[in-house]
Amino acid sequence: MRMPFIAAAVLLTTVGCAREANDADTAVAVTASASTADGARAAASTANAIAANPAGADSILRAAGHTRDSFQKMMYEIAADSAMSAVYAAAKGRQP
């Protein structure tokens, strides 16, 4: 009689622990997605500012925490990710 209860307890513990791990993985993925979306929006905002004032590009990049090289690298990262590209395109279309 005790064996089914022990088996049920082990099964519930295993399923519960697996679910907690999946929930944690999902939370990390959502946080990473929000972070990358914010980065794509920031890049679009920086690009819009540069388009509005090309002569001030270096100071705009500095204010955004970038160099020409780091901004170019970010643009390549955005271009390589379809979700980030979509966020960037949507944000780029909105002028400040």
Verbal overview:
With 96 residues, this protein is an all-alpha fold. The chain contains four helices and no strands. Helix 1 (2-52) crosses helix 4 and helix 3 crosses helix 4 (82-93).
Summarize this structure as a short list of keywords or feature phrases.
96 residues; mainly alpha; 4 helices; 86% helix; globular
Terminal-residue CA separation: 71 Å
> Biggest sheet: strands, sense, closure?
none
| Model regions low in confidence, pLDDT < 50 over at least 5 residues | 1-15, 24-32
**Percentage of residues in helical conformation:** over 70%
User: Averaging pLDDT over every residue, what do you get?
Assistant: 76
Coarse morphology: globular
How many individual β-strands? 0
Helical stretch tally: 4
Which structural class do the helices and strands define? mainly alpha
Q: What is the radius of gyration computed over CA atoms, rounded to a whole number of angstroms?
A: 23 Å
Please indicate the percent range of residues in DSSP E strands (runs of 2 or more).
under 5%
- How many independent structural domains? 1
Element order: H for helix, E for strand: HHHH
SSE blueprint and pairings:
Layout: H1 2-52, H2 57-63, H3 68-80, H4 82-93
Helix pairs in contact: 1-4, 3-4
Give a summary of the structure in a few sentences:
This protein is an all-alpha fold. The protein has four helices and no strands.
